[in-house]
């Protein structure tokens, strides 16, 4: 009988406690924003931002493929152009970082301070590694 009473007390304390439903240890799908508890308007706005930058990121991937081809050509030549290799790599990195920064800036403006803190838990999913 005591066990049942203790179990009821523990369960009721969980029901009425103030906790974050999306703790870090909870299973999380990559780039899932449910843990932010966005309003309907925020959801539409964030979706529009992601759609906008999706095309930019797709173009960046195509450019990356072309850059890789050029690097292959550089490496197969008799004389390796180190300066050109660095230029190609830096160009890609800058474009990638600019797109990422613009996208994160727009998302940041749409979130509340509490949502920004929760977003930070998974920010690695949104940044190029």
Largest sheet: none
| Alpha carbon gyration radius | 23 Å
How many separate helices?
Answer: 4
Helical amount: 55-70%
Q: Termini distance?
A: 55 Å
Structural class: mainly alpha
Number of strands: 0
Task: Write a brief caption for the model.
The protein has 129 residues and is mainly alpha-helical.
Structure description:
Helix content is 69%, strand content 0%. It has 129 residues and is mainly alpha-helical. It is built from four helices and no strands. Helix 2 runs antiparallel to helix 3. Residues 14-19 have low confidence and may be disordered.
What's the arrangement of secondary structure elements?
Layout: H1 2-16, H2 40-76, H3 82-110, H4 113-120
Helix pairs in contact: 2-3
Provide tags for this entry.
129 residues, mainly alpha, elongated, 69% helix, 0% strand, 4 helices
């Amino acid at each position: 009988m005591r066990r049942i009473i203790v179990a009821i007390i523990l369960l009721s304390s969980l029901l009425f406690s103030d906790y974050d439903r999306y703790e870090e240890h909870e299973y999380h799908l990559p780039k899932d924003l449910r843990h932010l508890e966005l309003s309907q308007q925020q959801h539409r706005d964030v979706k529009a931002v992601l759609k906008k930058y999706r095309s930019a990121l797709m173009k960046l991937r195509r450019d990356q493929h072309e850059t890789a081809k050029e690097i292959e050509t550089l490496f197969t030549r008799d004389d390796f152009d180190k300066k050109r290799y660095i230029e190609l790599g830096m160009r890609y990195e800058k474009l990638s970082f600019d797109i990422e920064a613009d996208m994160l800036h727009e998302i940041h403006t749409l979130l509340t301070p509490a949502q920004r803190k929760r977003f930070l838990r998974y920010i690695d999913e949104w940044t190029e590694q």
